[in-house]
């Protein structure tokens, strides 16, 4: 009799747990439907080919295939497409969502000349996470990509194929007034397209950035978004800037903003290895004049090379971006164009 009672309690507990899981799964489905309906009321379009709820008994998982989102109201009519999206939630921690995004992810938008721009992304593994508060506001978002492959549009700065061994992205809401975000990015073994061959080669061994972005972005076009951020005192303060790209090895701290012509405006101080060779490459590729290169090298030679913790010989340097020029100390090195195409 005791075994029968124990068996009955176990079966009753399992049945109760399944009923609870089913109830929570229905809530997740209802929340997804409510979000889609909310998007549609705002003039956006959301669709998918199929939907599946699964994950029993450990988690709640929702998979959408051939998912699409677009906003035809916007001037650029942005559109997002995904071959498959799966959202995972723990029953006891539903404010933390884990996403798996296998297959191709595509972003499509228009342009002023009427042409369509398209960027597609594939990765061996693409996992992202989102943490929200009780009101549905996002607090943290992160992405972890293994062997991503980005195919840029036919023209523009990011045209061609970009690949990497590893890409990590992280953003955390810091303040609401004024808007402030803590950001971090790490990329390893990046291979850029052919147009990036000069001056240091297509292969970037590593790039690591951490900092805080202050200021909000408002408007419908890229110009409006950047202008609102710039005019509102927008700035990125970098606590870490580390780059290994061919002969260039650079590490330091700095800040970055935009001037009235949307050109980079900021300063950096830190250490550089192979600085003389870098300047020679800039001169050889016509990015700086012989006079500018000579002045910069003369200035560098007045400072001593010192070994860092790894025994690498480095020089302490100061870089400034102002009035459309990048300068090493007081010596102009090269011109800086607008970050907006066509300007």
Which structural traits does this protein have?
343 residues, 19-stranded antiparallel β-sheet, 19 strands
- Uncertain ranges: none
Number of strands: 19
Structural class, from secondary structure content?
Answer: alpha+beta
Distance between the termini: 85 Å
Percent in strands: over 45%
Major sheet: 19 strands, antiparallel
How many structural domains can be distinguished in the coordinates?
Answer: 2
Helix proportion range: 10-25%
For the CA atoms, what is the radius of gyration? 25 Å
Element-by-element helix/strand order: HEEEEEEEEEEEEHEEEHHEEEE
Shape: elongated
Task: Figure out the total of helices.
Answer: 4
Mean pLDDT: 88
Description:
The structure is a single chain. This protein has helices at residues 2-41, 222-231, 275-284, 290-301, and strands spanning 45-47, 50-54, 59-70, 79-90, 93-100, 105-109, 117-132, 138-151, 161-163, 166-175, 180-191, 203-214, 235-245, 248-258, 264-273, 306-307, 313-322, 325-328, 331-335. By secondary structure, it is an alpha+beta fold. It folds into two domains: 1-163, no CATH class; 177-343, no CATH class. The radius of gyration is 25 Å and the shape is elongated. The protein has a 19-stranded antiparallel beta sheet that branches. α3 (275-284) runs antiparallel to α4 (290-301). The protein is built from four helices and 19 strands. β6 (105-109) and β7 (117-132) form a beta hairpin. The mean pLDDT is 88.
